[in-house]
What does this fold into?
Amino acid sequence: MCFRGLSLNGIAGCISRLKFSIALIAAAAFCLIFLGSTSHAQFGGFGFQQVVGGVSITPDGVLKTVTVEEQQEALATMRANLIGGQGELKQPAERRLISLKNLQKLILTSIEKNEKLPEEVLFLGGLTRIENVFVYPERNDIVLAGPSEPWTTGLNGSVVGTKSGRPIVYLEDLLCALKTVHNARTTGISVSIEPTEQGVLNLERLLKQVRLNSNVNPKSLEPAMVDAFGPQQIKLEGLSPDSHMARVILAADYRMKLYGMNLAKAPVKGLPSYIEMISTQSNVSQLQSRWWMACDYSAIEHSADRKAWKISGPGIKTLTEQEQINADGTYKQTGKVDKQAKRWAEMFTKKMDELAVADPVFGELRNVMDLCLVAALIESQDLQALSNCDLSAIVGDTARVELAKCDVAKSLDPQCSFIQTVQGWVVTASGGVLVDSWQTANVTKINESVTSGMEAAATWTNENRVWQ
It folds into this structure.
């Protein structure tokens, strides 16, 4: 994900690619999965909630801010319908196992019988991260492993663990990662929110006509700037814009923009906004900086026989680079890095664990990156062949499972934020996410210690159950 700081005609600035919010749908795992033209598996009683995260998406794709009462009503409905972990799942586990063979079988059976999938499947036994992938040729299975917790509804609508507060891994996102794995290899998975070239030029002309000084009230300029800048465009690669995964990525982009551009205070200590950091600087660069979030993992470790795999690392890092705006409103990369922009990126990366709890959308984004990496690992290392486990009904272009379609955000109402620096006025703005899962999956090394824990799934006590 990236947001930009932009300078036009000597005015230190970050021109807004728009303050926006995507309804982050915690109940997304409760949507329907379709097979064929009529049969479907029922994921539960919620459906996609459209009033979560401070906005709603109208049927024609316009984002609207919701009232506090509307959001509270939606969250109350979610909480009333959420059951939570039962039996063994009432207790946290250091390592929960998820059988992909059994998961595919249960999904297809549910579709055939038109039955609801239970919460323990929707939330993958309460997984909060994926740390291992184990291969079992003797039982034709691939197993995911990681810590798990009982689950509940968080304050912002995310489904989170009751112990750590970290978001639970959604089945919906796992299926999306598996289905789009080939797109991730060829085009990558990314999203950005871009101003139109004409919008940039319109805003530049407006700023040329305005003489800014200490007596000018910047808020008085907002209506004209909003009108000049116009609607923004969302660019997606590698996944469908109506998927829950796309919503997570977009929502994370939005939250990073708010914190970086001082449109909202970060919910963790020690993370000032980028705007606050440069507000007293006398040497603000006339080149804009862009920021984006990408995968951040250590080398993937595996046993010599490739049956045990270990995923480790923070999961997300924040990067930055300076750009120059061209006369036609397009951007040109410079390969340079601004010191203050880099410092803010490093601070944001350092605070990611705290943010994943305080603002769970960042934890959901990390889960999405974990899942995309797992999907790339399964395909790039040909683990289906190694395990003799055919997952063609849920993996890649042959997948017969079709995820439900939700309303897509098509237009964003611009809102600008201003701050005065020693050199001029700063106008705020934002951008996208990069999930480079295949590149990450190709960096591997042998470590026999990663086989620890494989024995737990050598035999599956209940072949009709997804988790163990």
About this structure: Residues 136 and 439 are 25 Å apart (CA to CA). The longest helix spans residues 361-380.
